[in-house]
Amino acid sequence: MSKEMQELQKQWHSVVESIHSNSNVVAFMNSRVGLYLDDHPFIALSLLMFVAVSAIPVAFFLIFIVTTAIMACIGVIVMEGVVISIGGIALLCVLCGLGALSLGVSGVLSVCYIILSTLVNYWYASRGEIRKQEANGTFSQKNPSVTDLSANKGKNE
Predict the structure, then answer these.
(1) How far is it, in rounded angstroms, from Cα 64 to Cα 126?
(2) pLDDT in single tens digits along all 157 residues of the chain
(3) Radius of gyration from C-alpha coordinates of the chain
């Protein structure tokens, strides 16, 4: 073997020895799980590969969580102000629209009330006049439609 390869092998051996001499590793290898994994190297390798491969997505997820938390803490005041402002403007627009709608509906209902009350007053006034004239016996043909209505009503009854 070449000299460089022997030096690399010594470095690797020292790294493995430092791992095996670590008290946490020794305690784990003496536990039931450590002994089981020592007896079943394929499962140990599969578990090691799963941990190694899943470390990157877990790290990205944790970075995402920390970034989101920091952004939420910093931006909550700004975001809350923006949301409240937009909500206030929307509420103002809705209330102005409802005010205009209520004015329009009130105007239409007022006009309808005036028209209906005028028609009812005219109808009762003309009926009262016809009754007065019938009671006096001086019934004139000033309004033929009103007399036709009263004549048709008398025929129907």
Answers:
(1) 85
(2) 688 888 989 999 999 899 888 899 899 889 999 999 989 989 989 998 999 999 999 999 999 999 998 888 888 878 888 889 999 999 999 999 999 999 999 999 999 999 999 998 888 888 878 777 777 776 555 555 555 555 555 555 4
(3) 49
Write the CB contacts of 29 (distance below 8 Å, at least 6 apart in sequence).
35, 38
Task: For residue 15, give both structure tokens.
Answer: 């790294």
CA distances from 86 to 81, 90, 124 (A): 9, 6, 56
Q: Which amino acid is at 108?
A: V
Q: Can you read off the two tokens belonging to residue 125? A: 């006034």
**For the whole model, what pTM was predicted?**
0.38
Cα gap 139→131, rounded to integer Å: 9
**Residue 30 per-residue DSSP state:** H
